[in-house]
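for the recovery benchmark. tokens below, seq after
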């Protein structure tokens, strides 16, 4: 008979690594008890409204605020000139890419409020502060902004043509970066000797991020200490604190505190400082009162950074047997009016890193002109260039298979990097450490009933529908984890608190982080708490982005746990009257080797709180403050199969079947990973068939509300079938590979390949709206 399981074993079985533990945050959030930035109201606070340009491009001649200043409740109105007089800081791009000729890229810094020109509709030009929000709104409407209109340009390709309107006098042709990667001569040679070359013109449509929670902030200034405090939705308080201190406020970092509570989505958009923050601090300092600002949805459409927006000519060279020889991408990236913190990365380096995917493509060349236009700035959006790279490559592969008469599955398998080739150096200078790409592909083909598709197509045809299937065989390169804090604190009430510099803005970090700690130290799951949104408690923090959180924070927790064990052995030696060298740790207990004498880690912490007498040199606490040093990127990969039906009478597309198998390495919590995968897939479906940001020729946003901008809803997506083929990464302590953005990387190509298949191979660009599909069918 098996021995009964003890409490520690049961704890691990329910809450250890690999268990589908529900999100700890959900009971609070589902009851409407979350604390978002707009939920915070401080004593004596006042309210701010931003005055924004209604012109896309023009010379700022003057701002008349006299009438507005005299309106009831108005406490102050400030412009860029006021900030400049006070020593205004600047918002900066941190990307250091050189141009193809070696010269530095153009990186005009962005003032919080411009003094010379406005460069897009929504550019903030003044801040109005009043006692109530209604008073601030009324006064903002009364501010008269005198702008001498200039011609505008909204398209990146058009923006760098001769005669295009210039946004900056010192940025010729609006090109801030002429990026190039690869050996052009070798790539040209490979194309010259190729038996077949596939070419596609691909558009990566601009999207509005449209997070559930609009941006919001409250600025405070303490004159006695000279400290600035910002309550704001963010993706990481440590990085935002340093950006505000170093670039915007120009004060020592210890003079700035950032606090973030619950965050209602971000997808990259809330990662960095925005221009509203400096004028909020300016007003708070002058008024001696907290100043609160919350954007409305219309303002969010205009001022929140947008995503995507690339145009590329893509080419794939193959030999007579279908082996990939080289791939080449030449195109444009739309930066919008100002450079975001990491804006040039998406259409440049991340195309390089991600487009070769699971394939042993020896050569890659990427040439991208990053162009300023009179549109909302573009920055990171779920995947930030990684879905794009995979989408471009997978469309090429499917098209090449059709053109060469090779089965698309066979063409992929023929070019897969085999497991025995690991570690594999790619043409994009990345080093894959693990992956079983062909085995994974076989699993998704079986799970999706690939061979039964003809029967389903015939059934759809009988109902008057066109059915297509598409494959997205992706690999993405996660962001390299930055230094990350893994603090562990044993609380007086018996809880254990994890302190981390990553930040949950919808992912559900609490449960998986607690699972790692439970696995490592045997601490009861229900005793574990999480602190992540107070910069004063951090000495490091890379924030959340690039699908790196579990690799960074998870590794930090593992390493911090090792330090707890080291300290605990010394303390347990005293408690058990034994030498520390004779103490071992297993399943949450410190035991004397070879005996049944021991003490549970939680009991040991209680003895410390009770005043356990310790000799000199023995640690007096189990608390640990630890910083995990950055680890390499990881390489999540997978294969997604989408099936669509098209109504030829209307052009309406329905995604009717969706199957995915992913390699995320060690899966800490399969329930949460499935949820993250579903969310990424839905956003990919949205971009593929409905989402598109449209500007008029004079720079007005035509899709400025949900009346004109379509987001996917529940009835636009099917139920998802998800499976895992996990090959642990060899580059981090947990073997994890990251999962948060992979859904986009798999869904963009699988859905678009399915649409093209349903149309008989006719190429289309995203988004495949009913109008475009109907026109293609009737062309």
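predicted aa per position
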């Amino acid at each position: 008979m098996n021995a009964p399981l003890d409490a520690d074993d049961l704890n691990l079985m329910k809450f250890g690594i690999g268990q589908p533990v529900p999100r700890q945050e959900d009971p609070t959030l589902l009851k409407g008890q979350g604390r978002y930035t707009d939920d915070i109201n401080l004593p004596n606070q006042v309210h701010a409204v931003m005055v924004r340009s209604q012109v896309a491009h023009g010379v700022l001649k003057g701002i008349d605020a006299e009438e507005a200043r005299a309106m009831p409740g108005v406490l102050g109105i400030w412009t860029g000139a006021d900030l400049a007089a006070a020593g205004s800081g600047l918002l900066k791009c941190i990307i250091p890419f050189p141009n193809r000729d070696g010269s530095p890229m153009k990186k005009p810094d962005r003032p919080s409020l411009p003094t010379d020109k406005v460069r897009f509709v929504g550019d903030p030009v003044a801040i109005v502060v009043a006692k109530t929000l209604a008073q601030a709104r009324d006064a903002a409407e009364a501010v008269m902004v005198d702008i001498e209109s200039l011609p505008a340009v909204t398209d990146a390709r058009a923006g760098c043509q001769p005669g295009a309107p210039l946004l900056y006098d010192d940025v010729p042709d609006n090109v801030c970066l002429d990026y190039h990667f690869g050996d052009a001569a070798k790539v040209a040679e490979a194309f010259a000797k190729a038996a077949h070359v596939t070419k596609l013109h691909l558009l990566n449509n601009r999207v509005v991020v449209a997070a559930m929670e609009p941006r919001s902030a409250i600025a405070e200034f303490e004159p006695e200490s000279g400290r600035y405090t910002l309550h704001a939705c963010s993706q990481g308080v440590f990085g935002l604190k340093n950006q505000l201190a170093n670039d915007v406020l120009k004060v020592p970092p210890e003079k700035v505190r950032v606090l973030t509570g619950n965050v209602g989505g971000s997808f990259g958009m809330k990662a960095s400082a925005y221009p509203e923050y400096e004028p909020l601090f300016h007003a708070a300092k002058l008024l001696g009162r907290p100043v609160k600002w919350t954007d409305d949805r219309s303002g969010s459409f205009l001022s929140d950074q947008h995503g995507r927006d690339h145009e590329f000519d893509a080419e794939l060279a193959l030999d007579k047997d279908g082996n990939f020889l080289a791939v080449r991408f030449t195109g444009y990236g739309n930066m919008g009016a100002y450079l975001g913190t990491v804006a040039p990365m998406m259409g440049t380096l991340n195309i390089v890193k991600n487009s070769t995917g699971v394939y042993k493509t020896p050569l890659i060349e990427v040439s991208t002109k990053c162009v300023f236009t009179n549109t909302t700035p573009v920055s990171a959006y779920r995947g930030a260039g990684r879905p794009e790279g995979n989408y471009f490559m997978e469309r090429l592969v499917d098209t090449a298979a059709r053109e060469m008469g090779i089965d698309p599955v066979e063409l992929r398998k023929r070019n897969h990097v085999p497991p025995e080739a690991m570690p594999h150096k790619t043409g994009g200078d990345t080093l894959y450490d693990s992956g079983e790409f062909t085995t994974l592909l076989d699993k998704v083909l079986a799970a999706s009933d690939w061979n039964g598709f003809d029967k389903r197509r015939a059934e759809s045809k009988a109902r008057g529908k066109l059915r297509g299937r598409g494959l997205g065989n992706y690999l993405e390169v996660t962001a390299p984890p930055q230094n990350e804090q893994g603090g562990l604190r044993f609380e007086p009430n018996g809880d254990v608190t994890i302190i981390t510099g990553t930040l949950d803005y919808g992912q559900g970090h609490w449960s998986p982080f607690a699972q790692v700690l439970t696995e490592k130290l045997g601490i009861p799951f229900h005793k574990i708490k999480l602190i992540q949104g107070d910069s004063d408690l951090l000495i490091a923090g890379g924030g959340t982005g690039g699908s790196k959180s579990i690799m960074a924070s998870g590794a930090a927790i593992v390493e911090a746990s090792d330090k707890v064990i080291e300290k605990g052995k010394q303390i347990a030696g005293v408690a058990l009257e034994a030498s520390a060298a004779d103490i071992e740790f297993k399943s949450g207990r410190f035991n004397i080797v070879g005996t049944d004498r021991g003490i549970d880690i939680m009991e040991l912490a209680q003895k410390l709180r009770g005043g356990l007498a310790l000799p000199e040199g023995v640690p007096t606490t189990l608390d640990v403050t630890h910083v995990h040093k950055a680890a390499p990127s990881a390489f999540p990969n997978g294969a997604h199969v989408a099936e669509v039906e098209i109504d030829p009478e209307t052009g309406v597309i329905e995604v009717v079947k969706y199957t995915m198998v992913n390699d995320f390495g060690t899966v800490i919590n399969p329930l949460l990973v499935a949820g993250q995968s579903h969310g990424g897939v839905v956003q990919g479906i949205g971009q593929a068939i409905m989402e598109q940001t449209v500007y008029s020729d004079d720079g007005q946003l035509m899709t400025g509300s949900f009346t004109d901008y379509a987001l996917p809803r529940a009835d636009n997506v099917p139920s998802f079938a998800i499976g895992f083929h996990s090959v642990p990464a060899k580059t981090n302590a947990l073997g994890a590979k990251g999962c948060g953005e992979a859904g986009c990387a798999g869904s963009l190509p699988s859905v678009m390949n399915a649409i093209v298949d349903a149309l008989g191979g006719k190429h289309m660009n995203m988004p495949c709206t009913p109008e475009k599909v109907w026109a293609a069918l009737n062309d």
